[in-house]
Amino acid sequence: MPQRQPRVSPVPGLHWTYVTVDAPESTMPVSHAIEADVLQRQDPELAEVLLGERERQASALQLIAAENFTSPAVLAALGSPLANKYAEGYPGARHHGGCEIVDVAERLAVGRAKALFRAEHANVQAHSGSSAVLAAYAALLRPGDTVLALGLPYGGHLTHGSPANFSGRWFDFVPYGVDAETGLIDYEQVRTLARSHRPKAIVCGSIAYPRHMDYAYFRAVADEVGAYLIADAAHPIGLVAGGAAPSPVPYADIVCATTHKVLRGPRGGMILCGADLAERVDRAVFPFTQGGAQMHTIAAKAVAFGEAATPAFAAYAHQVVANARVLADRMEAEGFAVTSGGTDTHLITADPAPLGVDGRTARGRLAAAGMVLDCCALPHADVRGLRLGTAAVTTQGMGEEEMAHIAKLMAGVLRDEVGGAETRREVQELTAQFPPY
Ligand SMILES: Cc1ncc(COP(=O)(O)O)c(C=O)c1O
């Protein structure tokens, strides 16, 4: 099996092959793990699925704001024998024998997370972003407590009070919103609602907010009404790691996050807090809301934290934002109504209505043309808009020039000026120049 050579990114430092921690460049492209693996011989049906998905990811533009391409090193840890190990509890205090080696992996992950985010304590066992939020609530709240959070129609996550989620059933959520015109958080409303409802906790975080949040303001309001502050930084935490977004760590009592978005780690969650809450948070994760830790994922998180501490990752994070700014700008020039007029982060939300198409139809047409993104609620209207991000395409090595090209491709398809099949071919030509693996 010939080894693929990593391509040279036009933007130095972006591609994951250039952010390897203190080891030489990866010599095991992911294709090796799939093609040469026993899976293809033993279970060609399933191997076909893996290869098909790899091809889908490589041949279309992955613009879903929550997605990214992990490094081969992260994938290697995920596919390692650590997946076999049961490890209930925490390093040095497990309910299972034989944990002495996986303990090292978890200590590495915790130590690297604490250093990366300058946090006194890190719990890296949360299975997902939702599990992290569940544990934060379990650590600080009792059923029936009042919680102030961004309403779901304005970009709040399901765990911020959706009636379909445990949060909406077990707690009394009071939603704050964003200004219909500017798309920015209505901070005055946050203060007014906090004063009148006296919540036990205030949550700041969103699935679709393109701007930085004013954590200092949230902290001041929380202090004024005696509430805990929980930052759900699932989206921006990778930018925080790379120094491209402000950190909620100095302000929030608990920071919840995912490791698989801009941070470019494995699918999973993470919780950061001060030493005073460390024990409560750890007990809220295990044994209160979870069982055995997933040691292969924790090892992969350690790898990702190591990568994220490098100067190359900082360059990547800043390029993610630079790319998003250009993409937002070019989309606006093409006629999209971009929420808040732009972005500070990796994330853009926009209404395609001025191009003569609604959000759901736009998502379908773009997908058919090879551009994969999401729908989302819009602050100014009762219709669905588009949500997209630049984390994955930046990992592939794309820069501002490619962002301008993508905005043009999107507008051409939605205005019906260029056929879907023709655009699909152009997308394939573009992605072929930037293979993720
Ligand atoms: C703000 C926020 N919180 C929580 C989550 C949940 O993460 P997960 O899907 O890993 O449960 C997300 C996921 O996108 C999110 O954006």
TrEMBL record:
Location, primary (coarse class): cytoplasm
Site-annotated residues for Plays an important role in substrate specificity: 260
Cofactor names: pyridoxal 5'-phosphate
Residues bearing PTM N6-(pyridoxal phosphate)lysine: 261
Reactions catalysed according to its record: (6R)-5,10-methylene-5,6,7,8-tetrahydrofolate + glycine + H2O = (6S)-5,6,7,8-tetrahydrofolate + L-serine
Residue stretches spanning the membrane: none
GO CC terms: cytosol
Pfam families according to UniProt: SHMT (PF00464)
Gene3D superfamilies (alphabetical): Aspartate Aminotransferase, domain 1 (3.90.1150.10), Type I PLP-dependent aspartate aminotransferase-like (Major domain) (3.40.640.10)
Pathway: One-carbon metabolism; tetrahydrofolate interconversion; Amino-acid biosynthesis; glycine biosynthesis; glycine from L-serine: step 1/1
Enzyme Commission number, as recorded: 2.1.2.1
Occurrences of domain Serine hydroxymethyltransferase-like (ranges): 39-409
Key words of the record: Amino-acid biosynthesis, Cytoplasm, One-carbon metabolism, Pyridoxal phosphate, Transferase
A GO biological process held by the record: glycine biosynthetic process from serine
Enzyme class: transferase
SUPFAM superfamilies in alphabetical order: PLP-dependent transferases
GO molecular function, one term: pyridoxal phosphate binding
Quaternary structure, from the entry: Homodimer.
Family designation: Belongs to the SHMT family.
Function (record text): Catalyzes the reversible interconversion of serine and glycine with tetrahydrofolate (THF) serving as the one-carbon carrier. This reaction serves as the major source of one-carbon groups required for the biosynthesis of purines, thymidylate, methionine, and other important biomolecules. Also exhibits THF-independent aldolase activity toward beta-hydroxyamino acids, producing glycine and aldehydes, via a retro-aldol mechanism. Thus, is able to catalyze the cleavage of L-allo-threonine.
Protein name, UniProt field: Serine hydroxymethyltransferase
